[in-house]
Amino acid sequence: MIISFAVFIVLASVVIASAAVHGEEVSYPSGGGTMKGYLAYDDAAKGKRPGVLVVHEWWGHNEYSRMRARKLAEMGYTSLALDMYGDGKQATHPDDAGKFSGEVMKNMSIATARFAAAMKVLKEHPSTDPDHIAAIGYCFGGSVVLNMARQGMDLDGVASFHGGLTTAMPARPGAVKAKILVCNGAADQFVTAQDISGFKKEMDGAKADYQFIEYAGAKHSFTNPAADENGKKFNLPLAYNAEADKKSWTDLEAFLKKAFAK
């Protein structure tokens, strides 16, 4: 009976802790369209806290990016999983995903406007400290947050997980304000050795404060449990890597603490 009661207390504590994380749908305008995001925060916490934007994979704003927003809320931040495609649009096939993401990446002014619109929503939330904002992104989203940093967006930090490293608009010396973390799979076939050396040369030339971490054996999309299924279904070199997922999230936690410490 004593053991059962102890187990009950532990489970009850977990339920209470989880219940403190509040998630809500948010709609906001950008460029004449409507963007549909998801905001998560601990409504039991007191005072304002740093905010973290989450930029989705090329599949669009889906449950995966929302899950990451909730995990950030559990970490003590207010987080907004934003929408880069508009109207919460999602892709179910790589052809559509490539089309949607390509349309955004080839028009950086639109991408920047959509990112800025989401950042405004996050900053204006009552639980957010507007002076401390960071952004993380996955795959396509990783490319987006790196490009925002390259442009000198006023962010404390950006973290890219298995994101693309090349750009048509390299960072100028002194332009990058945000600290940068790149979490890259060492076995990612979409990121070449030339991409990596070019990125590091660019960041060094821009005098950016950056970390580049590689995870042994990790393939593209290593943080997403759906990667194995998508890889098999569409014959793509994708794979979930639980060890790299856990380690990269721990690295993110340390990175955010450092980025927000200033």
Commentary on this structure:
Strands 1-2-4-3-5-6-7-8 form an eight-stranded mixed β-sheet, with helices on both faces. The radius of gyration is 18 Å and the shape is globular. Helix content is 42%, strand content 23%. By secondary structure, it is α/β, with parallel strands linked by helices. The protein contains eight helices and eight strands. It starts with a helix and ends with a helix. Strand 7 (179-185), helix 6 (193-205) and strand 8 form a beta-alpha-beta unit. Residues 1-18 have low confidence and may be disordered. It has a single domain, classed as 3-Layer(aba) Sandwich (Rossmann fold), CATH 3.40.50.1820.
The level of helicity is: 40-55%
Name of the CATH class: Alpha Beta
> How would you characterize the largest beta sheet?
8 strands, mixed
Tally the helices: 8
H/E element sequence: HEEEHEHHEHEEHEHH
Low-pLDDT windows of residues: 1-18
Quaternary structure annotation = single chain
Hey, roughly how much beta strand do the residues contain?
15-25%
**What number of structural domains do the residues give?**
1
- The CATH architecture designation is 3-Layer(aba) Sandwich
The CATH superfamily label reads Alpha/Beta hydrolase fold, catalytic domain
CA-atom Rg in angstroms: 18 Å
DSSP strand tally? 8
What is the straight-line distance between the termini?
A: 50 Å
The CATH topology corresponds to Rossmann fold
Overall pLDDT confidence: 93
- Strand adjacency order, main sheet: 1-2-4-3-5-6-7-8
Structural class: alpha/beta
Any idea what the shape is? globular
